[in-house]
């Protein structure tokens, strides 16, 4: 599957989950709850991040690369997160993990991807009613082998 098709499928599914979630969804521009600590990304994600980095102004790309050189602990922000604005500098090129976190989706009949800030006060049944089926593992079968910071050090 071509990466643009993968992104289209994932983004459409999550848009539907966000639509169904309505007010339960706390995710908003500038919210950085899910943008801290290292997490695994796939080789497809790495290629996408590198494309995005190449499209940035060289000075901004250099700042991101500099932040990626810093040791990243469990509570440290993602190197792509702009510390001044709280916005992802490579948002259009973000990994699948970033795209699928927040709104509920179903993978192998289990609800996954739910942010702890979302669905506050919702019952399990209400969360399931908002979820859409999305098997990310079958869509992107490339092995998870690195983190965003490691990928941007290359």
Count of helix runs:
7
- Which assembly state applies to the chains in this document? single chain
H and E order? HEHHHEEHEHEH
Largest sheet: 3 strands, mixed
> Strand portion, in percent?
5-15%
Report, as a whole number of angstroms, the end-to-end distance.
25 Å
Number of extended strands? 5
Task: State Rg.
Answer: 16 Å
| Shape by Cα distribution | globular
- Whole-number total of structural domains: 1
Spans of at least 5 consecutive residues with low confidence: none
What is the arithmetic mean of pLDDT? 91
| Content-based structural category | mainly alpha
The strand order across the widest sheet is: 3-2-4
Tell me the helix content.
40-55%
Tell me what the structure shows.
The chain has 154 residues and is mainly α. It has one domain (3-152). The protein has helices at 3-21, 43-55, 58-69, 96-99, 124-130, 136-139, 148-152, and strands at residues 41-42, 105-107, 110-112, 132-133, 144-146. The strands form 2 sheets. It has a 3-stranded mixed sheet with strand order 3-2-4. Strands 1-5 form a two-stranded antiparallel ribbon. β2 and β3 (110-112) form a beta hairpin. The chain is globular. The relative contact order is 0.26.
Core attributes:
two-stranded antiparallel ribbon; mainly alpha; 7 helices; 154 residues; single chain; 42% helix
List the topology elements.
Blueprint: H1 3-21, E1 41-42, H2 43-55, H3 58-69, H4 96-99, E2 105-107, E3 110-112, H5 124-130, E4 132-133, H6 136-139, E5 144-146, H7 148-152
Parallel strand pairs: 2-4
Antiparallel strand pairs: 1-5, 2-3
């Amino acid at each position: 599957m071509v990466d643009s098709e993968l992104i289209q499928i994932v983004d459409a599914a999550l848009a539907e989950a966000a639509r169904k979630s309505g007010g339960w969804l706390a995710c908003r521009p500038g919210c950085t709850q899910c943008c801290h600590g290292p997490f695994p990304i796939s080789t497809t994600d790495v290629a996408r991040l590198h494309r995005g980095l190449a499209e940035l102004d060289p000075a901004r790309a250099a700042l991101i690369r500099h932040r990626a050189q810093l040791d990243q602990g469990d509570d440290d922000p993602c190197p792509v997160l702009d510390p001044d604005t709280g916005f992802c500098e490579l948002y259009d090129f973000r990994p699948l993990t970033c795209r699928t976190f927040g709104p509920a989706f179903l993978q192998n009949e289990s609800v996954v991807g739910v942010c702890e800030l979302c669905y506050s006060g919702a019952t399990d049944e209400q969360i399931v009613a908002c979820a859409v089926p999305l098997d990310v593992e079958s869509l992107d079968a490339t092995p998870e082998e690195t983190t965003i910071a490691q990928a941007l050090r290359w």
